[in-house]
């Protein structure tokens, strides 16, 4: 299934039904007396979060959604039936915005959470509702109100505890496949991962964290280069980051430069992203001829306030230490709230 994380749709709530003008036919009752019923309320458009959904694919081809209108009132004081609400299901983590104003209507972060994005029109009153002591035979009724309609934007931001970031080919997909049961596509060329991948790391004591492989980050990502502009938004939901860098002899760029470049892109997109705790993971130590390089990098990153864990995703060296560090991070930051920061 293709990953769709943005959609623009038009929603139209149901119009209210019209009130009815009618009179009873009874002896000794002037004009039979008013008996027109009220019109029914139009159906609402409701958007609801559903944890079984992972993409906004349902909104890729169908763009217009309309709820049922209320039925008109009728004689004998019969009120029209209210229109059925239309419930649209979206993945948990979907942000809903009003296209015209840019205002956020709702941020659905819990399964089952819902919001009315367009209210149905109120039904019109029938002439029976206007009868008074001085107006015994009203011969008028109200029309139903028009239901709300608007264009809205749906934007999915994945809910994950930890985001895995780094340049293409740093080994993010391999790392998430080792730490969790995720099975991303893995190959030796850039942009293997074209969509964010979620996985779950289960600790021995029963707790777990959700990991997200964030693809497409390169220099200029915050300005739309590569795939970064499409997926930087998913980092906003994470509580912490694993920053993967290539420290092998065959690296394409210096590890510290790579780290600084990616962090600069995060800062350009949103300075708040740099406030998240980061663990720096130095990958491909099996391809490092001089291991004194590890000590130099460890000294640099710890001086800058980051934990540095050297690993080999091929030989699995350092993976246990990394899991231990993630567990420490969980106890210190992630276990304090179930909500994204």
Overview of the structural elements:
This protein is α/β, with parallel strands linked by helices. 16% of the residues lie in helices and 23% in strands. The chain contains five helices and 14 strands. The protein has helices spanning 172-179, 228-231, 255-269, 292-303, 319-332, and strands spanning 6-12, 45-50, 64-66, 86-91, 94-98, 104-108, 114-118, 149-156, 162-165, 197-202, 208-213, 240-246, 278-283, 307-310. Strand 13 (278-283), helix 4 (292-303) and strand 14 (307-310) form a beta-alpha-beta unit. The radius of gyration is 29 Å and the shape is rod-shaped. The model is unreliable at 184-193, 224-229 and 337-341 (pLDDT under 50).
Map the helices and strands.
Elements: E1 6-12, E2 45-50, E3 64-66, E4 86-91, E5 94-98, E6 104-108, E7 114-118, E8 149-156, E9 162-165, H1 172-179, E10 197-202, E11 208-213, H2 228-231, E12 240-246, H3 255-269, E13 278-283, H4 292-303, E14 307-310, H5 319-332
Parallel strand pairs: 1-3, 2-4, 9-11, 9-12, 12-13, 13-14
Antiparallel strand pairs: 1-8, 2-7, 5-6, 5-8, 10-11
What are its keywords?
341 residues; alpha/beta; five-stranded mixed β-sheet; rod-shaped; disordered C terminus
- Name the quaternary structure: single chain
Approximately how much helix is present in the residues?
A: 10-25%
Q: Rg from C-alpha positions?
A: 29 Å
Structural class: alpha/beta
Shape: rod-shaped
Number of helices: 5
The count of β-strands is: 14
Unreliable residue stretches? 184-193, 224-229, 337-341
How many angstroms separate the termini? 29 Å
One letter per element, helices H and strands E, the order comes to EEEEEEEEEHEEHEHEHEH
Which strands sit side by side, in order, in the main sheet? 10-11-9-12-13-14
